[in-house]
Each structure stands twice: as structure tokens, then as C-alpha cells.
Write a structure and sequence with these properties.
This protein is mostly helical and 87 residues long. It is built from 4 helices and no strands. The chain has a single domain, classed as Acyl-CoA Binding Protein. The radius of gyration is 13 Å and the shape is flat. Keywords: Lipid-binding. InterPro entries: Acyl-CoA-binding_prot_CS (IPR022408), Acyl-CoA-binding_protein (IPR000582), Acyl-CoA-binding_sf (IPR035984), FERM/acyl-CoA-bd_prot_sf (IPR014352).
Amino acid sequence: MSLDEQFNAAAESVKTMTKRPTDEEFLQLYALFKQATVGDNTTDKPGLLDLKGKAKWEWWNKQKGKSQEDAKKEYITFAASLVAKYA
């Protein structure tokens, strides 16, 4: 299976979780997904009142400089750990 196929399978697998991961785990998963699919965050930081958007932006921004390939590998590993924990 190619890296992209493994990544897509991991992205699908997280949808099967029956229990809710922590907010930090969700944010980490989101950040890795965005870094893997888009690359470095170049969007403007959301305003002060958009707490959810601001948190997502900050977590994604922490991934800056990580290659999309490395982000995909990290996402696959992290998603597998979450699925095992929350299945």
C-alpha cells in the first residue's frame, strides 16, 4: 500500500471511533491532517472571539516546516493509536 493509500485509510478509520478523543487529541489529528494535505499554514490567524478556529490554527501552525510526507506518516501512526484507544 502506498503512503497516500495508508493515509486515506487512516483518515477513514478515525471515523469509526465509538468514543470521543480529548480536545487535544482532536486538535493534533486535525493539525497533522492539514499539514499532510495542505502543507504549512499560510492563512491569517482567526480573531479573538473565534476560539475554536484560533485553537485549530495554532495547532496547525505548530506543524510548520514538517514535510507533507512526514506529516502523513505521523498522522497514520497517531490515528492508529486513537482508533485502538477509542474503538
